[in-house]
Design a protein that fits this description.
Layout lengths: L3 H17 L2 E8 L4 E8 L7 H16 L5 E4 L1
Helix pairs in contact: 1-2
Length: about 80
């Protein structure tokens, strides 16, 4: 079972960097398979690099720091 509170804490730290560029990220949920669902808003929502940021940034960090996270998907 993924520690949702730890996921929230890490996303909160990442939000600062995204907000500095006019974007934002919101945790939607974590399912039993370890899939973390997020919503990208602001400039992140329409950015061509958002999928790269999501996989190489958010997903990589969450997988490293929260046991059980298998994937991050944008809603």
């Amino acid at each position: 079972m993924v520690d949702k509170e730890k996921v929230e804490q890490i996303i909160e730290v990442m939000r600062e960097a995204l907000q500095a560029d006019g974007g934002d990220i919101e945790l939607i949920g974590v399912d039993d398979d370890g899939v973390v669902s997020v919503e990208l808003t602001g400039s992140c929502a329409g950015c061509a690099l958002s999928s790269y940021d999501l996989s190489m940034g958010v997903e990589r960090v969450l997988k490293e720091r929260v046991p059980g996270v298998t994937r991050v998907q944008a809603i």
